[in-house]
Specification:
This protein has 262 residues and is an alpha/beta fold. It has 5 helices and 7 strands. It is elongated, with a radius of gyration of 26 Å.
Length: 262
């Protein structure tokens, strides 16, 4: 095959020049692209903790409960309210993802690193905010609108008089999140310190009090802030789980669900 006179191939010198220019452009653009990706991850983390926090508030409004429960029905879906003792309290809600490490300022505070295997008081967002399935047990579900309709027998106010003031119109009406809560942008789990949702003064949840080191004992247990948290880009939690006036540590991302103002 012959090449026309006005056609020629790319010389080695030309190819080298093109590659050199591309390399220079890549070196110039790389920091900008990296910075953009970092900002995108941080924006997603901020949005995720907000969405989780809003879902928790809606759940509380719908169910009329002041805490997340291990057993939302107490075995009597139609008439009896669930037991609301501190021992019933779910104290830490988590998503899928790796357990982040702890920063130097909270090294002794193992609350954030607890897993479901550590005890019944740790549960998933999915079991309460996506599925009505506390502790992976459907028999322990919160009342839903169908339960209320059957129990009320046409009278939505029945429970106020027959169940110690249990408010019949309140029910689980999820899902409160549109899909499974994925890991944060750095592969770690999100968590919410729901132990402190409207706790009773002078009566601390038994389990959680043993794994926080913020200086709050059962005799002076205050109402503390509840917030959703991501460990951030350093994959290390630097935020105390027990705070009266929540402030994020280092590069953590938090969204305050309840300030529990006294």
């Amino acid at each position: 095959m012959t090449r026309r006179g006005n056609e020629r191939g790319v010389t080695l010198v030309e190819a080298t020049v093109v590659l050199s220019v591309a390399a220079v452009l890549a070196s110039i653009l790389a920091p900008s692209v990296g910075s953009y990706l970092d900002q995108a991850r941080q924006s997603r983390a901020r949005e995720d903790v907000r969405v989780i926090g809003d879902a928790i508030n809606t759940f509380i409004d719908d169910t009329g409960e002041h805490m997340f429960l291990r057993n939302g029905s107490n075995g009597a879906l139609d008439r009896n309210p669930p037991t609301r003792a501190d021992a019933q309290r779910v104290e830490l809600l988590i998503s899928d993802g790796d357990v982040p490490s702890l920063g130097n300022s909270v090294l002794g505070e193992t609350y954030w690193t607890q897993t479901i295997a550590s005890g019944l008081w740790v549960d998933t967002f999915s079991n309460h905010l996506i599925e009505n399935n506390p502790g992976e047990t459907l028999a322990k579900r919160y009342r839903n609108p169908t339960d209320i309709t059957v129990a009320a027998i046409g009278n939505i106010d029945f429970a106020r008089g027959e169940s110690s003031g249990f408010n019949a119109p309140h029910a689980w009406r999820g899902a409160y999140l549109r899909g499974p809560v994925e890991t944060d942008p750095w592969g770690n789990r999100y968590a919410v310190n729901v132990a402190f949702l409207d706790p009773r003064l002078d009566a601390a949840p038994v389990a959680v009090n043993g794994v926080i080191t913020a200086g709050f004992g059962t005799a002076t247990y205050p109402r503390l802030d509840v917030f959703a948290i991501s460990a951030g880009p350093d994959e290390e939690i630097d935020t105390k789980s027990a705070q009266d006036g929540a402030v994020a540590g280092d590069d953590d991302f938090i969204y305050v669900v309840s300030s529990n103002a006294k």
